[in-house]
Amino acid sequence: MSSNELIDRKYYSLYIGNLSADIRRKELCQYLEHFGQVDECQLFEANHRRWTCFAFILMRTPDSINQLMSTRPHFLDNRRLYIKRALPDQCSNKIEHFLTSENVLIQFKNSENQEINEPDFNEENIRNYFQTYGNILNLYLLKNNRCVIEYSDYDSVDCIILDSPHYFNSHELHIDKYYSTEQLKQLDRMFIHNHELPLPGAGEDDEHVGQFLHSRRYLNMRIRLLNDSILSVKISNEIKLETIHRGFLLTINRRKELLEQIKELNKQCQILHEKNQTIKENNQNRFQFNNKLEKIYQKQIHDEQNKQNEWREKIELLQEQS
């Protein structure tokens, strides 16, 4: 298969899990053809090591895949189907094809071997680029130019991985799904119970099982899971520290805002106090002025009354003389 065919194929492929043990290929294809033409359907039936069926689907167009993903959840034979985009081996580890995550870990490729100083690797630029893949719930900037993005839908993470490689200012980015410790425990259980691991009582003797458990392939997988668990705990702690740091900064900023508001309120109170003092002084001046006016008016009234009395006496005197 050529590289172009592989690139094309990865956008047309779908993984469907949790299928009924009684499902038939024709029945599954009939359901999927409501969303577009099905080119290939590989159905893996249940057996003594695998209690559910799953299938790999190749659709005719990527739009069919997008429509299937955007119209989740899907139900068939009263079972809720587990649907995700099939990731090629070049995009992720084999067993991780079947485990979804809403979190993606982003870092510069080969950043462990060389120190990359990239000042533009900030929250605004990262968000502007990766928000085209879906709704971002949280974005955590970590040490050493690393970042964890939490999406509302696991399909956004699969689309990012499918579109790899990604570049940031000519630096290639290394993209991985980020799993919590609980998800890694689930991944561990999936590996233990997957069809590659022989189980006692299933036609395999204890010696065969022991040989498998001591095989290089099994030990390498266990080491990788252990390393992933250590990395997950480390990143989880960094995220917690980043969350605490953000909360601390928000508290400080909120405290500054409150102090500014208190300062502004104190200024307004001082202004109101000065205005109130001015009004008091004005009222006092008006009171004093009114008192003066009242005294003047009283004196004028008294003088007028005296004048009237004098004139009245003069008139009476004139009347007597006449």
Q: How many angstroms does the end-to-end distance come to?
A: 151 Å
Using only C-alpha atoms, the radius of gyration works out to 42 Å
Total beta strands = 11
Nearest-integer average pLDDT: 81
List its salient traits.
322 residues, alpha+beta, Alpha-Beta Plaits, 5-stranded antiparallel beta sheet, 8 helices, RNA-binding, coiled coil, Nucleotide-bd_a/b_plait_sf
Would you write up a description of this structure?
By secondary structure, the protein is α+β, with helices and mostly antiparallel strands. It folds into three domains: 3-86, RRM (RNA recognition motif) domain (Alpha-Beta Plaits, 2-Layer Sandwich); 89-178, RRM (RNA recognition motif) domain (Alpha-Beta Plaits, 2-Layer Sandwich); 181-196 and 207-289. Helix content is 52%, strand content 18%. It is built from eight helices and eleven strands. The strands form three sheets. The protein has a five-stranded antiparallel sheet, sandwiched between helices. Helix 6 packs antiparallel against helix 8. The longest helix has 106 residues, at 216-321. The model is unreliable at 1-6 and 195-209 (pLDDT under 50).
